[in-house]
Amino acid sequence: MNIKKYVTYTVLSAVIVGASVSLSQKMNLIDHANASAEPTQITNSRGSNGGKYIQAFERMDRIPVIKNKALKTNQNYSVLEGKISRKLEPTGEKEITELIVEQPGRFYIKHTPDANNPSQFEEASNDGAIIRVKDFNGDIRKLEPMQNTFPSNQTASKDMIIPDYNGTYLPIGGVNELLHPEMFLQSAFSNGKVTIKGEEKFLERDTTVIAIDRESLEGKLGNRQTLWIDNQTGIILKLVNSDGDQPIQTIAFEHIRFSDRANEALFQTLK
Questions:
Q1: Contact, 239 vs 250, CB < 8 A?
Q2: Residue 105 lies in a domain
Q3: Is 46 left (phi over 0), alpha (psi -120 to 50) or beta?
Q4: How many structural domains does the chain have?
Q5: By percentage, how much of the chain surpasses pLDDT 70?
Q6: What is the CATH number for 42?
């Protein structure tokens, strides 16, 4: 079977475009303690003439959990095992994604589009060399693992966030934004007002809660996106799209566990 090149989401291309101006200023970091106090609005230090992506880079650079963790999640754990639900709040429709990710470049994932019909699911695995995706009919296709999204023949600006997937970009399940926040944060920060809401416990882990009130609603679910970012790894443990305080969609880990070693057989199941 021919190996197909994996095609990135359109949103990733947007992250790469337009940020070619170097930062002339660096703003002081917000103390981590501020995240647990009153909500802190992160505003731009540049006028309207500055590029939105450059402004977004500045804003991210001022939030320790993003600068130090969320932009390089692959470096912050060895093995992740978890179960993620994706729920459409108005209807109660729910998807389930179960996964094990081992750094570098191996994973097994099982995606059930309808939680009420667990017998219908698709699977994918990366054994470190090739991704195999088994569809609902049992057919298997092969893909090359994705490393990053920046063309090798171009030079990246220091103000551009280039995702480093390290072979752990998942071809099914729709949960990459949780595991790889760097794939969308610069775009999200460039198109909304960012507020640090504080710190909360989620799944018994310390998280920083950040709300983004969107300026543009085109192609979006609701006018606000709220993130619960794990302080230790930078992984997004919970993401809620809402209209104000009214949730529309919730994507969240139901459980998560980190360890040093995974079961080797899991990555070989689809051969």
A1: yes
A2: yes
A3: beta
A4: 1
A5: 74
A6: 2.50.20.10
